[in-house]
Design brief:
homooctamer, 5-stranded parallel beta sheet, 4-stranded antiparallel beta sheet
Chain lengths: 182, 182, 182, 182, 182, 182, 182, 182
Amino acid sequence: MEKMLIQENVILVTRIEAEKAEKVLARYPDAVYHEDARMIVLKKHEIPIHGKGTILVVSAGTSDIPVAKEAFITAQVMGNKVQSVFDVGVAGIHRLFRHKEMIENASVLIVAAGMEGALPSVVAGMVSRPVIAVPTSIGYGVSFGGMTALFSMLNSCSSNVAVVNIDNGFGAGYMAAMINRV
Amino acid sequence: MEKMLIQENVILVTRIEAEKAEKVLARYPDAVYHEDARMIVLKKHEIPIHGKGTILVVSAGTSDIPVAKEAFITAQVMGNKVQSVFDVGVAGIHRLFRHKEMIENASVLIVAAGMEGALPSVVAGMVSRPVIAVPTSIGYGVSFGGMTALFSMLNSCSSNVAVVNIDNGFGAGYMAAMINRV
Amino acid sequence: MEKMLIQENVILVTRIEAEKAEKVLARYPDAVYHEDARMIVLKKHEIPIHGKGTILVVSAGTSDIPVAKEAFITAQVMGNKVQSVFDVGVAGIHRLFRHKEMIENASVLIVAAGMEGALPSVVAGMVSRPVIAVPTSIGYGVSFGGMTALFSMLNSCSSNVAVVNIDNGFGAGYMAAMINRV
Amino acid sequence: MEKMLIQENVILVTRIEAEKAEKVLARYPDAVYHEDARMIVLKKHEIPIHGKGTILVVSAGTSDIPVAKEAFITAQVMGNKVQSVFDVGVAGIHRLFRHKEMIENASVLIVAAGMEGALPSVVAGMVSRPVIAVPTSIGYGVSFGGMTALFSMLNSCSSNVAVVNIDNGFGAGYMAAMINRV
Amino acid sequence: MEKMLIQENVILVTRIEAEKAEKVLARYPDAVYHEDARMIVLKKHEIPIHGKGTILVVSAGTSDIPVAKEAFITAQVMGNKVQSVFDVGVAGIHRLFRHKEMIENASVLIVAAGMEGALPSVVAGMVSRPVIAVPTSIGYGVSFGGMTALFSMLNSCSSNVAVVNIDNGFGAGYMAAMINRV
Amino acid sequence: MEKMLIQENVILVTRIEAEKAEKVLARYPDAVYHEDARMIVLKKHEIPIHGKGTILVVSAGTSDIPVAKEAFITAQVMGNKVQSVFDVGVAGIHRLFRHKEMIENASVLIVAAGMEGALPSVVAGMVSRPVIAVPTSIGYGVSFGGMTALFSMLNSCSSNVAVVNIDNGFGAGYMAAMINRV
Amino acid sequence: MEKMLIQENVILVTRIEAEKAEKVLARYPDAVYHEDARMIVLKKHEIPIHGKGTILVVSAGTSDIPVAKEAFITAQVMGNKVQSVFDVGVAGIHRLFRHKEMIENASVLIVAAGMEGALPSVVAGMVSRPVIAVPTSIGYGVSFGGMTALFSMLNSCSSNVAVVNIDNGFGAGYMAAMINRV
Amino acid sequence: MEKMLIQENVILVTRIEAEKAEKVLARYPDAVYHEDARMIVLKKHEIPIHGKGTILVVSAGTSDIPVAKEAFITAQVMGNKVQSVFDVGVAGIHRLFRHKEMIENASVLIVAAGMEGALPSVVAGMVSRPVIAVPTSIGYGVSFGGMTALFSMLNSCSSNVAVVNIDNGFGAGYMAAMINRV
């Protein structure tokens, strides 16, 4: 369990399992637990949108969704409009293209992918916007707990890509929020 | 320099630089040097096509072409019809789709890529055909001389992909020729 | 547990333990659980053979059998005639040679091996057919969970070898099936 | 040598040595060679500033300057106001604090560092702005050609940091320019 | 559990969990268990101070405290005056500077840090005293169980730093005690 | 260049290139240079055979011969009867079996191999004699300068195999000589 | 659990925990369980000594004893006179020298060590006999589960050392037995 | 070439080759070049000894001497009495013991070693003094340019050892000088 206080009126707790979360919620009835993202959010009042454009979170496979959701909620809680497109891996590239418009309208993009980590390169090639790539620890054998995805993303042939640590959905959301305020 | 005798009426020499190749050609005037593939081919007579379908060689960037060409010539010399699509990296995925028909008509595909090594996953997702992926040592920093591309390809989320050693264009062409005879 | 739908009339579930499988079978009485391969197969009706030749699955040690069986069943379910030769490691090479005829008659070969991963090179040296090598995570110390076998296979001095990810029996069977249709 | 065409009226060539650059300049007298950054810039006319705020490039040691300068010029050529603070490594942290005001006024920061790669964490802790960290291949022994700096940066305890490939000054400048337009 | 007899009148047991420790204490009622450091100390009589100056233990984050405490108690038990400054990571460098005086007055310093392992470089740059750096296994993704912190510390641009094994608080305390007697 | 004095009446110099060797020979006319093994041998008088049985040196490919020869000459100079079988790689296993008798008659065996390093396992499976395996740095891509062969050999499924450092023909010959005297 | 049948009248089972061993012993009352070596030995009748000299097993620390014992019993069961010297690590080198005579009288030596793996070099420097080095997985941090000890041993500056896989006591004993019969 | 200004009246230049050094000496006739250490020393006047005891530099092999000498001169120039014992590797441990008295009289010890890096453990076991271990990049194969020696030293079973970067003789001398002033 990791605690993180971001802004004066929001408390975020990341990587907290359901069982532990229940105990926290029993004590703080206003807190909300997001099970798919394994996060607790506790806000004093509604968070106003002050980010400039829309942040779009894209994820390659269903197993990448927890990390993608962590990024999603973090960015949202920091005052941004956030959208998502999940399960659009490169092995079925046509599924990605169905969301072309949403991709082109985003001001900042977060792309989460495990295994070969190819999705950020493809998405970044479709836009002239900053893309934050998040490798996930999804895979087996030579996925090395996310290392292969990480190195793929650092090697991206698209230049509008920067990378955060493996499974660091929180960092990706935080960085995207910083960018969306520039 | 590596020598390889493949069939009774062809001799292939791979990884031979222009300067050395010239000396070989001076002695064997019937031999042909392919500078981009760094190969010498010496055939006694024309090689008949006995492979069943067409082998297609796809490469991600211009720097991957030498490896792709090594695969191309090897497959061709082993009696196959071979076609190629070069410089269609995933950062500009629309360039790849322009060749959709050629991709769908191939019976076996060879895909060479360095850096993040994402192209084989994308291409394999477009067909129901065996894809031989060849990582190349193109890149710097965490490309690790082709290791990142290699691991990406082994982690491919497409199941119709098998991989050969880094820069092993010869092996890819040889394997594709074996497959095209099944 | 990983689910994989391959063809319209077959569902394959891989890497599923006996206990979980039982629950699935209780709900789908037509499904069959292959304990050694840790797979569930659910077919609507018999699968016709449409692969051209015979796919042969060879494995080095008894511990490699689960991965070999995963490849076996995958290839079979995809409409191929499949045979197997198990427990013929290179430390007793004469055991392999007893199956010389079966090896020479196969149209595609899958070879699973852990530890030093030497078997694919030996088998591939005996035939002029495509060999799909599957490293297994069998071993300890410097076997690195299958990495040593993987690198051995990529370094094979036989050219008719291509490799899939560690323990990826499914991928090997799938790729062999693709090849057997060319 | 790598060529990169960024915008309709600018051509950038990166990683080009003095000797080669001279030949290029002989042919294109309007081109300018920046020796410390090993870059050639060829513009048709002055580039208007359209980035929103100031991009600040910070570097740890004198040996990191070439990479830092590559980032500087790239960002500048893409239409941004760029400033720099060089040689402010963490071993003499007071030197960094002398530039506190400039750091706090930047809208996007690029921090280049080799060896232990600690500077981005320190700088990012001083601002609420996006920081692009560029590991450099400076160091010996366990610096592993920039790998240690890279991993340090990905592990940063500051959340407003994202990372590009080793020595990828171009990518850092490009990404910062993207961010400065959001 | 590791036992270590250091001096004739003290017995130290390191890396012992609470449950086991209880059993030991039941048998040796004079022993004291330090839960945060996971150590048991059993002294025959008070340990006289014979180290020359003060040893200061500095740690980056709250998660590094167990290792820091192990170093603290080891140095103390070996007859030294020991002080500590905990939770002064580089992402909030101003917190470190609040303790400037204590840092400058120490004769030997031990600095424990995980993740990017940057703290020893910063602290060592503030003094002309020997600094023993202890990497901790705190972090995830590319922290590699402390390897990134270890390599950062070995790459320190400050020359008054030497390093011990990951999580080796005992060794750091022991080495500092040796130095404080020179 | 490495010098090694083994016995009172022999001097061995290993890893010495032809050009340097010539200069040494000019000064010591009794010395002999073995170009394929890159060694100089200088004996005061003939070396009597005092090893018990025959040491057999086996090598996988032609490129492994320099290392194999270094082992051969070292063992010979230390007073052993030595035989050799070169170029019998596992991709053409029948070539190895042609030498079955010689293999079975040896008292100690040295097996040199690069690439996948599979030969020692196969040879060791044919005899009940100690086998010293020498990985060579032959190969490219994931051969990692001999690491893959080294790890393969350490993972050998034959138990009568022990391994020396990469390219350490001298060590293999020395160890075999030690064993042949037991 | 691994089973190994070595000779017609002995069965060895290695790496078997006490609980499982009990069940085996219940069925085979003649079998003996060696708890420190985690082995079961089942002999039809006494094993005659046919090894030539004495095999000496040396181990560095108390934690290396299980591996050392596995080597001891394996060599003994294969018909050798075996002696042992345990807990003589290089940090207290005088303890090793107390056993100088026993070391000098052995015909083959097995040396087990974890952590820095330095003992085989020191022991091998004291004799002109073959030394089989066994790295153990003892240690933490950068011991990498025995890798550091393994690489130390392969790098030994003594030439009469060959190495087996990490924790492979069985292999060391087996190899020593092979050598002791030459 | 690296320049380092240590104290107000001394300038040290490290890692400078003879040819370059000559040019520097031509301009600064008072400077002295130490070829074996590849260092230039330029002092305004004699350096007074203010270190408390004697610093002893020990090195394992002749190839480690350059690094050992760099440490020696650095410590000396910083105002210490320094002694040295060279070429006392662990394969001939008796050579080390000849210097027992000098070892026991030192107040701080620096031990340089490549290959298996075992010497610091042995030396540290002989004294109750701080030992600074310097791995050198001497060796081949699995010495990994000093990594094996580095990891051995960090794993030392002696607790009075701390380590600096590979080949970092300067750092070792600097750290020892810091310690000798405590």
